[in-house]
Amino acid sequence: MEKLKALLDWRKLENQTLYAVLLAIILGVVFPSFAHYLKPLGDIFLRLLKAIAIPLIMTSIFVSIVSLGSIKELKTLGIRALLYYTLTTFLAVLTGLVIVNLFFGIGNGQEVNTPTSTHFEPKTVSLEQFFVSFFPSNIFQSLAQGQVIQVIVFTLLFALGVLAVTNQKAKETVINFFKGSNDALLNMAEWVIKLTPFGVFAIVYYIVATHGLHAFVELWKYALAVLVGLFWHATVNLGLIAKLIGKFNPVEYFTKVREALLVAFSTASSSATLPVSLEVAQRKAGVDPKVANFVLPLGATVNMDGTALYEAVAAMFVASVYGIHLSLEQQIIILITATLAAIGAAGIPSAGLVTMTLVFTAVGLPLEGIALILAIDRFLDMFRTMINVWGDLIGAKLIDNLLKKEKKTENNP
Ligand code: ASP
């Protein structure tokens, strides 16, 4: 009882944010006309987060690599992180496919009332373009355009370059500069986080007021499949992974990091949420900064369980509306391409919609079909981004625990 009370205590920032979300949903539906007064507040909050996010990606990855100190340690961390990202994303898509097939019987052709106002111009992404786009040609351009993967690739190489510098004094100066900047950015994040209840209230209010909730009624079956899948993945799949492999209690961890999940929900952007995830993981949940600084920024762009799951469900849904039956082989192609498409999606709102063309093209679905799901995409984006960030946070804690355990056994064999 005491625990529940503490969990709902309105004086806590995390709870104020949750109440702000709930209040914004209700007021957004009842008084939509006020929304535009609140928009500037939401915009300022989002801009502050984004302004911190890009430099923070650089400094955090840099600090993580130089504090690992050797290529061997980087390899240990990197391999574990990549394995975790790929396996959990795969599992997420699998969950999506099983839910669609088992519970909803999507795949037998069904009528949907599509909102007519939505218009979608499909743009295809080829696999080649997709890989080449990971590499920057001008780092300042990548920074200015928020090309996160390019920034990560550059920072990785730059950090390794700094480690190889032989002039100790010069090397330390660069390292200290980045360490100081990283701490300063985290302090800034801490201040912005104090504004979360207001920022989140304004953003959610505006979205509910402008999008309305009616589209949910028409697309309820599809929305339900996505939401059930996301919920299952977050609680059962990731929960079991945390408990069995990471040896930590996911519920307790959730209570420590939930602020980041609410920010993810309202901003629908993993990248904008990064300052908050880094802050709560290190300062509240005690994840080693070395691990958090590597796993979280990388995860924010590469590890998107929610997006992968949603892309698979969306493909199956659109196929069913067009009366196209997808065979087992085609569903396996969806499994692979949705994983890739999620890796390629940027951590910004609606990024998943764009990379979804990869999945559609691979199984020969009409790209215009994406227009069918546009009406509720912004809402589903909020939920899938929350699961994307939850996946990153579980990964950070899990890898931290695994590395600590390995260190212990190395020291006392
Ligand atoms: N909005 C998602 C994110 O930032 C990406 C997407 O699925 O559109 O994680």
| Count of separate structural domains | 1
Strand content: under 5%
Look at the structure and give the mean pLDDT.
Answer: 87
Second-tier CATH architecture: Orthogonal Bundle
Beginning-to-end CA distance, first to last residue: 44 Å
* Number of discrete helical segments: 18
CATH topology heading? Proton glutamate symport protein
> Percent range for helical residues?
over 70%
CATH class categorisation: Mainly Alpha
Q: For the record, what is the CATH homologous superfamily label?
A: Sodium:dicarboxylate symporter
User: Uncertain regions: pLDDT < 50 for 5+ in a row?
Assistant: 111-119
Broad shape:
globular
Bound molecules: aspartic acid
Annotation, overall tally of beta strands: 0
Radius of gyration computed on alpha carbons: 21 Å
Q: What is the element string, with H for helices and E for strands?
A: HHHHHHHHHHHHHHHHHH
- Tell me about the largest β-sheet: none
> Quaternary arrangement of the chains shown?
single chain
The structure class reads mainly alpha
Structural summary, described in words:
This protein is about 80% helix and about 0% strand. The chain contains 18 helices and no strands. α2 (about 15-30) packs parallel to α9, α3 crosses α13 (about 270-285) and α8 (about 170-195) crosses α13. The longest helix has about 35 residues, at about 375-410. The structure holds aspartic acid (ASP).
